[in-house]
Amino acid sequence: MTRYLLRRVPSAVAVLWLASVLVFLVLRAVPGDAASALAGPDATPDVVAAIRHDLGLDLPVAEQYARWVGGLLSADLGRSYLVGGDIADLVADGLANTLTLTLAALLLAVLVALVLGPLWAVSRGGWLDRALTAFHTAAVALPTFATGVLLILVFGVVFRLLPTGGVPPGGLLDRVDITAQYLLMPAVCLALPVSAVLTGFLAETLRAELRQDYVLTALAAGVSRRSVVFGHTLRNALPVTMTALGLQTGALLGGAVLVESIFAWPGLGLLVEQGITRRDYPVVQVLLMLSVAVFVVIQLLTDVAHAWLDPRVRLGGAR
Amino acid sequence: MNSPLRRRAVLRGVAATALLLATAACQSAVDAQSGGAGSTPKQGGVAEVGVNVDLVPGNVLTNSNVSITTVVGLVYEPLIRYGKDDLKPQPALATEWTAAPDGTSLTLELRRGVKFHTGRPFTSEDVKFSLQTYADPKWNGQLRSTATAITAIETPSPTEVTLRLAHPVSNLFDLLDTAPILDSETAADIGTGKRFVGTGPFKFDQWRPNTDLTFSRNPDYWGGPAHLDGVHVRVIPDGQSLLSALKSGQVQLARGVGYRDAESVANTPGVTVKPLDRGAELQAYVGINVSVPGLDDPRVRQAIGFALDRERIIKKVFRGAGYPTSLPWPKGSPAFDAARNGHFTHDPAKAQALLAEHGQPVPIVPLTYVGTDNVAASVAQIVQNDLSRVGITVELRPVDSTQFVKQLIGAQFPGLWTTTHSWAQFTPSTLAVSAYPFNARRNASHFTADTYTAAADEAWQVPVGGDTPAAYAELSKQLLDGSFLTEIGVVFEQLVLRDALHDVDYTRRRELDLGKAYLS
C-alpha cells in the first residue's frame, strides 16, 4: 500500500503544479490588468505604474508565480487586490454562504421529492398526475433567472412577504427566523429544477417497483396501498434516487453562481464573478486552485480506497 | 374513545397551533428592513441604501463608484465645500482662509472642537497628512496634479495650516473641496477596508465584502448629530434585484439604477427620482484617436461633431436626464458659453461638406465601448448609425470594463470610444489638468497642440479664486478647434428614493450627504 501511495501521490502533486501554472498564466493572458481596474479611468500612466508596483505586478512573471506558490505552500493565500483583505477570510465567508444556500436547497429538493414522488407514482391518469407532470415540466424548463425574478416580484414586491435579496444584517447565525426568511426564496429558486428531476426519478423508480410481484402479493394479502408504497417500495427506490441526488448536488453548486447574483447572496459565485470581471487575480487563482485541489484529493482518496479494497489494483500498478 | 383517528387529529391540531405560534413569534425580515411606515418625521431609524457595486477600499480617494461616494459622503469631510450653484468656497473643516496676493500660498484657519470618530481631536497635522496622502500616486487621487503643486505644508499651530505652492493654482479650492481629511492614526486600515475614520456625521462600523456596509450616527458631530441612527448600505449587483428592493420598500434609496429603469419606476407611487443636476454633472462623449489615418484631419473630427444627433441620444438613451452640449461645461460652470455650447448642431449636410473637403474616403473606424454597459452600447449604436449617414463606416467593438479602462489609460483605442467623464463642474482648469481624456500633455486621443497646452496652463496657473473668463474662452475655442473628443451632452446620475426618506443631499462629487436626512 505504501508503495502504491508513493507512486500515486507524486502524480497528484504534478497535476496540482500543472494546474497552478495554467491558472496563473491563463489569467494573465486575459486582456486588461488589475492595476488599470483599480486605477480607474482618470488615472495617469504614472499612477497605474505606482499601483502596479504596489501590487507587485511589475515583477517578472516567474517571480510573481514563485511568490504566489510560496505563499500557498506556507498557507498564506494572499490578499485581494480589490478588497484588500485576506483571501482566506473572503473564501471562508463565501464558502459558508454558498454551502448554506446549497444545503438549504438540497434539503428542500429532497423534501419535495419525498412528498411528490410517491404521490406522482400512485396517481397515474388523474388530475394529480397531470398537475405533477406540469410542475415537473415547468420546473425543469424554466431557467433559474426567470424563476428568481418571478419569486422576487411576487413575494418581495407585490406581497412583501420576504426580503428581495441579501443576507441578514446581523449575519446568518444571529436570528434563525430572520435567516430563514432571507434564505427561502434563493433556496427555492435553486432547488426547483433539482427537486423536479428528483421527483421524476423517484416516481419512475417507484412505478417500476410497484409492478414487482411482491407488491401484488402484499396487496392481495390485504396490506394497504399506503403501507406498501411507504413501507416497502420507497425504501427499495431510495438507493437509486440517492445516486441521482449525488449527481444533482454538482448541478446545485453550479446553479448557485446565478442564484447568488440574482438574490445578492454573497457566496463564492459572486466572488468568482467579480474576481474575473475586475482582474482580481489572487482571488480567482485561489478559487480555481481550490476546486482543482478538491477534485484531485477526492480522486486520490477514491483511488486509494479502490487499491485498499482491491489488491489487484495495487499489484497491477506494481507490475 | 381513544381511537388512532382522534389521537391523530389532536396531534395535527397541536402541530398546527405550534406552527402558528412560531410564525407569529418570528419577526418579519421585511419589517426589520423597512423599519415600518409612518407619515411624520421622526428622530432615529436606519436608512436602507442599495448600491449596484461594492466598495474598492484602494479607490477611496477617487469618486469612481457609488459605494465609494457613499462611504466618503457619510464618513469624511473636506476643508471647504463648494455650494451647488457656484464655486464659492464655504467653511467645512476650515473656517477661514487667506490667499497670498501672488497666489503662491494659502493660509487656513481650522475649525476648533472637531474630533475624529476615534475621539482624537482634529489638528493641522491631519491636514498635512491627508494632503500628502492624496498626492501619493498609489491612492490615485484625481486632483493629484494640484496636490503635487503644493511644495510645503506648514503647521504653525494645531488650528492653522499654510500651503506653499510651486506656482499660482487656480483650482486649489477644488482640491480642498475634494480631498477627505483622514485620521492619520488609522489611515493604514483604509486599504483593507477595516476602518474608515473621519469627522463626518456617520461613523463607519463594518464592511462585509459583496454584502453590505453599516454606519452609525456620530453623536459628537460638530454640526449636530444626524437625525438617523444609522445607515445600512446593501450591495445588490443585479439591476432588477436592486429595483425590486426599492419597489418593495426594503431599500429607501437606490444608487446605480439604469436610466430606463429609473424612468419606469418614477411612476410607482411613493418613489421619486432625484437627478444630481446641480453641480454634480457628468458628461457623455465620443473620444477620437487623432493618430489614426482619417481621424488625423480636424475636418473629419468636426464632421463627426456635426453628424451626431445629440438630442436623440439624450432623449432615447439617457431618457432626458441631461442636455446636449458641444463643450464639456455644464450650465453652472464659469466657462459655460451658450453660443459656443451650441456650436455642433445636428447637421449631416455640413458634416458631409467637411468630409468632402477632406477629399479622401475615411477608413472603417472602430468604436470601442463597455459591452456590459447598456447605456454605452446604446450610445455606440446611435453613433454608428449617425456616422454611417454621412459616409463614415463604424465597426462596433464591445470590450469589458477592465479592458476599456486599460485602453483608455494606455491611449490604445484604435479609433473612437464612448464613455462618460466628470470634473467639468469644477474650476474649468481642473478638466484640462486632471481629467485624463483632456490632459493637455498626455491624453487618450494622442492630441497635442502648443496652443491647447498654453490655454490649459493659462487657465490653471492663476491665483486661486482669480476670474479668468478670457482664459476659459480660449480653452473652449481650443477644444472646439481640436475636436479630439466630441461631447454628446451633460448627463445626471440619478438617486431613486422612497418617499419615506427625506432631505437626501449630495456634493459636487456625487457623494451622498445624509447629515440632515430623516425617515418618516
From TrEMBL, chain A:
Membrane topology value: Multi-pass membrane protein
Keyword NADP: no
This protein's record includes keyword Zinc-finger: no
Span of domain ABC transmembrane type-1: 95-302
Membrane spanning stretches: 99-122, 134-162, 182-202, 251-271, 283-302
InterPro entries assigned to the protein according to its UniProt record, in alphabetical order: BPD_transp_1_N, MetI-like, MetI-like_sf
UniProt record, GO biological process: transmembrane transport
UniProt keyword list: Cell membrane, Membrane, Transmembrane, Transmembrane helix, Transport
Domain of life: Bacteria
Location(s), subcellular: Cell membrane
One GO cellular component, as annotated: plasma membrane
Listed Pfam families: BPD_transp_1 (PF00528), BPD_transp_1_N (PF19300)
Family recorded in the similarity comment: Belongs to the binding-protein-dependent transport system permease family.
This protein's name: Dipeptide transport system permease protein DppB
Native organism taxonomy: Bacteria, Bacillati, Actinomycetota, Actinomycetes, Pseudonocardiales
From TrEMBL, chain B:
Bilayer topology annotation: Lipid-anchor
Domain of life: Bacteria
Ranges that cross the membrane: none
Family stated for the protein in its record: Belongs to the bacterial solute-binding protein 5 family.
Name of the protein in its database record: Oligopeptide ABC transporter, periplasmic oligopeptide-binding protein OppA
One Gene Ontology CC term in the entry: plasma membrane
Cellular localisation: Cell membrane
GO MF annotations in UniProt: peptide transmembrane transporter activity
